Task: structure prediction
Amino acid sequence: MSSFPKCSNCGGLIIGHIWPNRSCYDCHELETEDGEVTNHERIRCPKCGHQEDVFESEKYHLAKEDGGETSCGECGHDYFVNCYITYTFTSPERIQDVPAASGKGEPCDARR
Ligand SMILES: [Zn+2]
Ligand SMILES: [Zn+2]
Result:
């Protein structure tokens, strides 16, 4: 029952501002920004502007530290893509101090 609109380009949910063409910020940037663009899954050919999804187009070899070279599926232009991997560490939950089994109430001779 999500009420977030979907990006017409990448299909992702748009949580912030909706840019023209119903695109999310990342896609908007890929389409309008002439300089370097950073995106979580899409790459853009510097020559023709064709965008590809790294994971859907099976360019998995780019999804590693330092990226790699690829060629555009549209115009065949070879270009280099950088990739930065951020690590997220998840530690287990805190171990609760389990009170002793008989730990209910006060010590026997606290109130006498
Ligand atoms: Zn998008
Ligand atoms: Zn191209």
Observations:
- The beta strands are 42-44, 51-53, 68-71, 78-81.
- Residues 7, 9-10, 12, 23-24, 26-27 surround zinc ion (ligand 1) (CB under 6 Å).
